Amino acid sequence: QVHLVESGGGSVQAGGSLRLSCAGSGYTTVSNYCVGWFRQVPGKEREAVAVMWRHNGSPYLADSAKGRFAISQDNAKNTLYLQMNSLKPEDTAMYYCAADRGSVCLPRAALFDYWGQGIQVTVSS
After folding, report:
1. Of 60, 65, 86, 111, most Cβ neighbours within 10 A?
2. Cα separation of 12 and 60, whole Å?
3. Alpha-carbon distance 74 to 71, whole Å?
4. What's CA 25's distance to the chain center, in Å?
5. Which helix (H) or strand (E) holds 72?
């Protein structure tokens, strides 16, 4: 059972930066996991921001994140990061960390089995 806890959210003005962290536990050493960040605003579906394999593979970034956000991880610390720069008001959302022990790593929320509790990011203009 993978347990995920996000931190680092908050309020920032447009153009500012935030770094989200996701501390994970319960990963098995024999499996690879797809890990990533999703976000959701009320009334809309949860959308992928960035996903990547814990071991090997290139990250996927949503078009809205390219050039501004970066996903990275420190496997020694079991921690996933999302560096968000040049934030815009439309980035305001609840951000979730997710993990899946599957055979594919796709930016689709329905494929992920494990979720953090979410953390709010608010960008003011």
Report:
1. 65
2. 25
3. 11
4. 16
5. strand 69-74
